[in-house]
Amino acid sequence: MDLRVMRTRTNITNAFIELRSRKPIEKITVKELADAAFINKATFYQHYRDIYDLSESMETELINNIVRSIPHPDTLIDNPGRATLEISEAMMSQTVLLHTLFSDSRQSVMVDRLEQSIREQVLKKHPEYEHDLEKEILITFLIRGTFHAFLKHSPEHPLDTIRILAQYAEWASGH
User: Which residue of 4, 70, 71, 99 lies most exposed, with the fewest beta carbons within 10 A?
Assistant: First the structure.
């Protein structure tokens, strides 16, 4: 990719993160973002359709980075404590961006996308789990529960939150 294109995209994403940290996505305009990124609106539209396209692109990249940094997502059923610990640590490494991009109306989008991505990893290794209601519920419970508990409690108690989540995952799964 051309260095100028990379620099422009970096300016756009940095400006978006700064604006998004102060206001909901619905209140951010392309003009405001372009001004903050020191570009014109036409330049923005060369890269993204609208603010939501930019946000979705950044969200997808963040989810992919989180899932790629989980060493063993496929062990969620076999070793839920370890997998929950790894998921929590992966989210912790991206906590500021998580809280920024997925606050307000975007939080449910994040957990849906995270669950889908991790579920794909689990089912790739264990296709037999796909129609097993108990396994499906456990996957949903562990991912969604970990996500919501992490977001709520990690700002004040990050390490304790991760430790407790891993303990509860073991307990909930009966391991």
Answer: 4
